[in-house]
Amino acid sequence: MIRSTLTDRWQTTIPAEVRTALGLHPRQGLLYEVHGETVTIRPEGESLMDLAGCLKTDQPAGTKEQERQAAQKHVVHQQPEHEA
Fold it and tell me: Which of helix, strand or coil describes residue 41?
């Protein structure tokens, strides 16, 4: 069992094993779920702002026309459903 201690200010350090297992990083929010005498701690989900810049590329963005052509090229034509 992994153990930590509360300070006089009600703070604790999350043990390295727990941080690694949950994939935690500094300043990440945590969610607590209380079930009687048991508490579940899990990482808070990331927001869209946390993803800013993750798709950065050196390639310039396409024009609207290039985007339309690419979309039309990849459209999947569905067959109409037949009644049974």
Answer: strand
DSSP designation for 11: -
Tokens of 36: 């009687």
Q: Are 14 and 28 in contact (CB under 8 A)?
A: no
pTM of the model: 0.50
pLDDT, tens only, 1-13:
999 999 999 999 9
Distance CA 43, CA 40 (A): 10
In a domain, 34, yes or no: yes
Domain tally, the chain: 1
Which residue range(s) make up the domain with 36? 15-45
